[in-house]
What does this fold into?
Amino acid sequence: MGKPTGFIEYLRELPSELAPLDRIRNWDEFHLPMPEDKLRTQGARCMDCGTPFCHTGTLISGMASGCPINNLIPEWNDLVYRGLWREALDRLHKTNNFPEFTGRVCPAPCEGSCVLGITNPPVTIKNIECSIVDKGWESGWITPEPPSKRTGKKVAIVGSGPAGLSAAAQLNKAGHWVTVFERADRPGGLLMYGIPNMKLDKEEVVMRRLNVLEAEGVTFVCNTEIGKDLPTEQLLSDFDAVVLCTGATKPRDLPIAGRDLKGIHFAMDFLTANTQSVLNHQPGDNFISAEGLDVVIIGGGDTGTDCVGTSIRHGCNSLVQLEILPKPPSDRAADNPWPEWPKIYRLDYGQEEAAAQFGDDPRAYLTTATHFEGDENGRVKAVHTVQVAWQKNEKGQFIPQPIPGTEKVLPAQLVLLAMGFLGPEQPLLDALGLDRDARSNIKAEYEKYTTSLPGVFAAGDCRRGQSLIVWAINEGRGAARECDRYLMGSTDLP
It folds into this structure.
């Protein structure tokens, strides 16, 4: 703790951003770099607590509290304050394979459990993390480090999202030959196609790290879906172990009247096709445009926010985002104490852009769709909605009840369903004959990751369900450790 009184002397300060009406003109990242002296000042605000909740990731009330990958946050905050950036990068990489990803798209549960946050705005942990790794890239400190020797063991990883990539990085570090199979045309999974370019640049940030992994010996095989393009029997016979990191990609549907109308799409289909068009510099066959349309987005989470930002960049005519939950309070409620994740009202980047473009936050809280209305050509033209109240049923469960007289009709030629995910797609799991839990996820105990099939491991969202990128990295690293133990009898992986 280089500055014992830093948390008293300095206020929280975040980097500047491009103004919403300027940044919606392109697909570039819009956060501006922060001067080094200001970053060192922000590092000085860290209290170096005797009990640093920020780096002790756990679940409280079903939400992440602290960092699930146990980043050594007080240590690299102090190193940044003292100007020791190379040492800070080394500490960061000890627990996190991809801090340039988490520093951009993680919701920062670490900040929600920062002890300073009990009485003051918390330390800007996420921005400091991103600044450390960005400086590492700019300074040429991050270079390929292939293992000095190989074990001769071959491991297949199915899925190249954050769980698959972290497992690949760790298993390659242990000396195994690692092949990552990805059904899309580019590796990266969620990082490549689930997050828009303005939040996480694909060529400058994602591909940069993937190129390092390739240079270290990891092999990526794209356009290959296991069970279709490559038989599962061949996968099991060609490799000594398999790690499944396929994600939870089965979207939650909305089976109400008019669902089969044209113009109603799952959010990930919309986002994936858009990112492909950005990377290919032209719209593809599956491209879905919001240009000139009235857009209704159903779902209030991060994916819904990404649909907001993407639709605005397309040049939509109007935009409404339906959220079935109530509007969160401005400050922590009494039943949401520290160090729980603060369930408070936030204006995320997409809603900020919508407010600048259309005059207000686009979210309609406590509102649900009742049915879709179509035109004579079988295309959606309106969404019928009603406000709801959450009330207990006979089992004591809170369920949304429609409020008579609150019905509305919203014009819509494009509807995007962003209501979360139900679990992994099942065909591959059926082909492998894997046991599943009650939520259709692959059955594998946390921190063991072993499935019902010997030599086959599962990690990330396909095992735990839809979750955060930091949990995916946590599980990918953990599955790599247990896979290495299975192959070698012991392991030195953390």
About this structure: The first strand starts at residue 58 and ends at 60. The domain at 154-249+422-488 is CATH 3.50.50.60 (FAD/NAD(P)-binding domain).
